[in-house]
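B., you asked whether I could sanity-check this one before it goes into the benchmark set. Here's the sequence:
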Amino acid sequence: MSSSRKVQKIIDQRCWSSRCRIIVCCLIAFTVISSSNVHADRWKSGAGSSGESYGSGTLLLGDETGGYHRALHLGSKLDVSVNGVIARVTFRQSFRNVSDEWLEGRYVFPLMSKSAVDRLVIEIGERRMEGDIKPRKEAEKSYRTARASGQRAALLSAHRDNLFSTKIANIGPGATITVEISWLQPVDIDNSIYRLRLPLTLTPRYVPGVSIGRHVEDPLSVHNMSATTQVDDAAQVTPPQTYRSRGGELADVAELNIALNAGVELAEIASRYHDLEVSSSGHRYQVVLEDGSVAMDRDVVLEWRPAESAVATAALFEETIGDEHFGLLVMMPPSIQGAIPRSTRELILVIDTSGSMAGESIRQAQSALMNAVDRLTQDDRFNIIEFNSRTRSMFAEAVPANHKNLNIARRFIRQIVAGGGTEIAPALALALGNPGSGNSVDNTNAGSNRLRQVVFITDGAVANEEALLGRIHRTLGAQRLFTVGIGSSPNSYFMRKAARFGRGSFIQIGDTSEVSESMGKLFEKLEHPALTSIDINWPDDAEVYPQITSDLYRGEPVISLARYRSNVSTFEVSGRAGKVSFTTRPAISGVVEQSGVATLWARQKIESLLDSLRAGADIESVRPMVTEVALQHRIATRFTSFVAIDKTPARPENLPMSSRHVANRMPAGSIMGASQAIALPVTANGHYISIVIALLLLLASMLMYVRRPS
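And here's what the prediction gave me:
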């Protein structure tokens, strides 16, 4: 063989070897990309095997491929009765099993964090079952036994203060089921505005931590979500969530009927997000939806304001049970803050840019940030922290609020986009610092009187609330933490609790049109000293909750609940505003008899007992105390559940039963789920890394081809 032919053969062999390497790398890259996409798609919510999606409140019938098919949703209705400052809410949902199988369904539903769920009723055909309150493990055992024996049964459990679930077993083919849940909740008051908020759906919660490969023993474990190192009950708090049904029609709507007994003449009554029809008779108002029903994709918010002549300084609502009195004191503190000069401060603005904020929420958050920056003065210092799967700070440390730095901040805000996970812990660590460090005290410069305030702007869509609240409790120091709830249905439990532990205040923004007004009110609170060291002289025999009244900011009332045997007619309230002390004796024009005060007192006591766990209390000592109060007052908690059982077996022993889910509607304005995964644990974020690796392999292949011998 000639030398030229030998050289050509070597070149051909090298070319073939190069081509083989390119083909192998391409195959590997294609496999990695495909598997990562399959992995990501597995977590998308609401998509059936045919690609259609369904509305919230739809009974979804799962199959072995992971797809869903729709059962018939017959309707939802909210009946609300408001008396004074307490609302009784009854929520009814009806479904028909249109399959030919016996079914078990599960529905996760949101409430306000201060709600006390005290009633469960299940109707199947003509059968009506009233729930009994039991210790949680006992209730779950009763339900499992009834489920296995073919009896109709229902179980209501609390997973968070604002997140509950209901299971219903042995729904026969063609049967219609109605689930009725009832609860009490207090009305919010701020700047003499009374506000009732009714969540109808929830924002998907991000599940941080590494999967530990253990599934909760629950036949209705949503998406087969496994527990993680940070969230042990991930399967319980991540229900499927959907957009509109195919064709754009709304299958997830609810009727609303509110009977409002304000007790005084009202100057205004309105809803922020829905058109209402209001009729009145004296001080009683009837409120219904103008269109008859509302999409279950955002909170319903009703606000009313008493006429100026009817605004009371203080009111005492009381319920008597036996020889015990339960009192609810609502009092506006004296207006002494105006005479106190504005404090210079160091303001740390923290913004959530995770995937759940995509759409309307991120626009609201950007507008809120711009509003905050515009309120800064030349005496202030500030910084901005952005977080999603990663955390980054605009400046290395807080800087003066001069013209140059403010312009940098505005450019920073405009380029923000939403994507990734909701890793709040690193952002909290950066914003609050560590106890004893320069980041966790009132000032960053020795001798400064600068007050350090942290404003956290987020939808709070996380499943590890307890760990985050514990971090705030440990690292707050002398700082103040304020939270801004963003979106049409944020996690208000976490936001409120974080603000309370942070000795700050909480506001909620549900629409971009509210940003200027809401941020203005927040900054009025930030710019004036809080009322601290508040003491209320209840009778000596009173058991009072909360035991320590939180710091209060401009426009916020004193609210205190107590159980006592003595008669109460007058109060003395004392406290401090900055360095100024005050004592006031509010005029109370009689005691108002009010049903539900005892239940709200018990709910507040339970909350105080559970809060003690974050301060180091032993759960085995707290559990029996919570259980005792909850059983006595019939309240669902993490240690107590409602169970309802029909004694007559309905499902024949030889027929199996399948488990099904009820989906929640995605919040209005959210685009999460259209192109992003929902309820992703950290381990699922690896599909992004996989794509990067695949692209690098393709690039390596191209370089190998370009550099082949000529």
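One thing to flag: The first helix runs from residue 3 to 41. Otherwise nothing jumped out at me.
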